[in-house]
Amino acid sequence: MEKLASLITNGRLAPSLMITHTFHGFDQIPAALERMHNKPADLIKPVNYCDDLD
After folding, report:
1. How many separate domains does the chain show?
2. Is residue 50 part of a domain?
3. What is the pTM of this model?
4. What span, in angstroms and rounded, lies between the C-alpha atoms of 2 and 4?
């Protein structure tokens, strides 16, 4: 984990390149978890944006 953090901090690795699936909103959390549980071949990292906060 330290090496990964160092690569990111020093600009040698862009975490955004690992994001393969995005979900938006609290209501999408179950879908994101299901995707991680069943892990299709094209999944690297899913990200859930909780952008519906008001």
Report:
1. 1
2. yes
3. 0.66
4. 5
Q: DSSP letter string over 4-18?
A: HHHHHHTTS--GGGG
Please report whether residue 33 resides in a domain.
yes
The encoded tokens of residue 9 equal 């901090």
Listed in sequence order, the residues at least 6 apart from 50 whose beta carbon sits closer than 8 Å to its beta carbon are 25, 26
Q: Between the CA atoms of 40, 21, 37 and 28, what dihedral angle is there, to the nearest 10 degrees?
A: -140
- At 29, list the tokens: 């959390």
Please give the Cα distance from 43 to 33 (Å, whole number). Answer: 12
Considering the domain boundaries, does residue 30 fall inside one? yes
CA-based max dimension of the chain: 37
Give the mean pLDDT of the chain: 89
Q: Is residue 42 part of a domain?
A: yes
